[in-house]
Design goal:
Blueprint (H helix, E strand, L loop, with lengths): L5 E6 L3 H11 L5 E7 L2 H11 L3 E4 L8 H11 L4 E6 L4 H10 L3 E4 L4 H12 L4 E2 L1 H9 L11 H11 L4 H8 L3 H15 L4 H10 L4
Helix pairs in contact: 2-3, 7-8, 7-9, 7-10, 8-9, 9-10
GO molecular function: DNA binding
InterPro entries: CheY-like_superfamily, NreC/VraR/RcsB-like_REC, Sig_transdc_resp-reg_C-effctor, Sig_transdc_resp-reg_receiver, Tscrpt_reg_LuxR_C, WalR-like
Keywords: DNA-binding, Phosphoprotein, Transcription, Transcription regulation
Length: about 210
């Protein structure tokens, strides 16, 4: 086993699902499941206690749901990467989760190896999206108007692609959160998109980031 395996927490309100997911990571030498939570509130408490690197997060749970938990985790534990794992890939669910700061969005029918790699990719600062989610985001794009993102706008977008919240982008670039929002507004217009996740996908497709 590696000296420091990735620490994973599983958050889902169904015990059978949690058991199944834990089983999918048994025997994986570089990933260890350190905690399981049944809702967002328990996930926040266990994050403080167990310090996971990555959280696999269900969306629809009683009490504090997945989106609410992601927002709290991004605010209180910005180093923790959250990958949504759900059965739903509706436009509203995807947009809410990625806007909240999720580093990825996968469906529960994802193969075992894909889940393993998603955890590794998220921990390394990457973004992981189910093919259906990529198709959804690409379908929301409109023709690109004249003009390309400026170097500063691309700096903002690169940090967003790594899962940074507006506050973290502002701190990293020594600018205000209002300026970050203005840059993003300009990026959306130039790339013909209407949200952060679609902007990242569009920029990657066009080789901008």
């Amino acid at each position: 086993m590696p000296e420091h395996p990735l620490r994973l927490m599983i958050v889902d309100d169904h015990p059978v699902v949690r058991d199944g997911l834990r089983g999918m990571f048994e025997g994986v030498p570089d990933i260890v499941v350190v905690a399981e939570a049944a809702d967002g509130h328990e996930a926040l408490a266990l994050t403080r206690a167990e310090r996971p690197d990555v959280v696999l997060m269900d969306l629809r749970m009683p009490g504090l749901d997945g989106v609410g938990a992601i927002e709290r985790l991004r605010a209180d534990h910005p180093a923790v990467r959250v990958v949504v794992l759900t059965t739903y890939d509706t436009d509203a669910d995807v947009s809410r989760a990625l806007t909240a700061g999720a580093a990825g969005y996968l469906l529960k029918d994802a193969p075992r190896d894909e889940l393993h790699q998603a955890v590794r990719t998220a921990a390394a600062g990457g973004r992981v999206l189910a093919p259906s989610v990529v198709s959804l985001l690409m379908g929301r794009m409109t023709p690109v108007p004249a003009g390309a993102p400026s170097p500063r706008e691309l700096e903002v977008l690169k940090l967003i692609a790594r899962g940074a919240a507006n506050r973290e982008v502002a701190r990293a670039l020594l600018i205000s959160e209002t300026t970050v929002k203005t840059h993003l507004k300009h990026v959306f217009a130039k790339l013909g998109v209407d949200n952060r996740a679609a902007a990242v996908v569009a920029a990657m497709e066009r080789g901008l980031i």
